[in-house]
Amino acid sequence: MDPKKLAEALLAQAKEQGVDLVGPGGLLNQLTKTVLETALEAEMTEHVGYEKHDPAGRGTPNSRNGSRSKKVLTEIGPVEIDVPRDTNSSFEPQIVKKRQRRLSGVDEIVLSLTAKGLTTGEISAHFDEIYGASVSKDTVSKITDKVVGEMSDWCNRPLERVYPVIFIDAIHVKIRDGQVANRPIYVVIGVTVNGERDILGLWAGDGGEGAKFWLAVLTEIKNRGVADVCIAVCDGLKGLPEAINTVWELAIVQTCVIHLIRNTFRYASRQYWDEMSKDLKPVYTAPTEAAAKERFGEFAAKWGPRYPAIVRLWDNAWSEFVPFLDYDVEIRRVICSTNAIESLNARYRRAIKARGHFPTEQAALKCLYLVTRSLDPTGRGRARWAMRWKPALNAFAITFEGRITPTGN
């Protein structure tokens, strides 16, 4: 029978009998009960070797032995089912295992809600309010703890041999370790030779990062298979440029232009932002370094007397900014195309804001990993890069000749 027609017939029958669609005793509850019990009976038939009520089962070494009631939590709420038993207690059901009190879909709901930043108490209250089911905070915590091993595997998975570009960014979270303090969590995002965004990992800093910290992080990435990085885009973090060139000698360290512009605005009154943005554009769109230097001289002459700190900011970042000017326009577009990164950070910040603070560093990493996991159902933390990639790939292949080898189609 066509599934749509079957659903319409069941709905009509429910209305005729005055049965609710959802809730305890509702149509969906009854259907879930029927499906689970039918599957369990099929498993029992396979286990004992004969159909229910079949005379062929008489005198066999093992036979059916009635059933026992059991309540399981499903995606539509608690469902009371009858689980068949056998005489020698050797039946091991798979659809609803022994001592299993909830279906796997419930765990995915808990993980999804955690990724959105809900606390264990809020998730527990959500199940009580929406499903009329009791799920303790301890149970919610145990469910989310299951991803710790998965997170460890993800953080140690093999990576691509080469990334044309990697972005290194930080998001700050509040962690209660004796006292609540702001801690940076660093995320490294790579662009593969196929134009995919690949989140390489998450690392918790302690506020005292330097060359030693970054050398350990980048060496870990290299040990996971990354033999070469063409361009590393970062925000002038202490010790990072030196560590990048220690690990990947040929990598170009590029100051993130977007971050540089944002930091510029921090020193200026909001009323000047639009005008200042127009005056800066000729600097970072200049065809050569000499032209950029000339345009920046004009910018400094206009804004320097009012905001000398902005001129100093650009002067200090100039050596890491100028490599950007040597690239083809398509490569510039990749470096400045931060939409994917900003989208990821927005997800992270939403989850963090909803939580307020975390009891431990692992709790913070677990939450951010679940956000990462939710971006990609395969669990690889990978998604298509939202941009034209083929022109950029050609530009990278020419600029970094011999280092970029495209794969696939």
Could you write a compact summary of the structure shown?
The chain is an alpha/beta fold. The protein contains 16 helices and eight strands.
Give short descriptive properties of this protein.
single chain, 409 residues, alpha/beta, 3 domains, six-stranded mixed sheet, two-stranded antiparallel sheet
Point out poorly predicted stretches.
none
**Estimated share of beta-strand residues:** 15-25%
What number is the mean pLDDT? 78
Strand order of the largest sheet: 7-6-3-4-5-8
| Main beta sheet | 6 strands, mixed
N-to-C order of helices and strands: HHEEHHHHEEEHEHEHHHHHHHEH
Gross geometry: elongated
How many individual β-strands? 8
Q: What count of structural domains?
A: 3
Rg over C-alpha atoms, rounded to the nearest angstrom: 29 Å
Question: Helix share of residues?
Answer: 40-55%
Structural class assignment: alpha/beta
- Supply the number of helical segments: 16
Keywords: DNA recombination, DNA-binding, Transposable element, Transposition
InterPro entries: Transposase_mutator
Family: Belongs to the transposase mutator family.
Function: Required for the transposition of the insertion element.
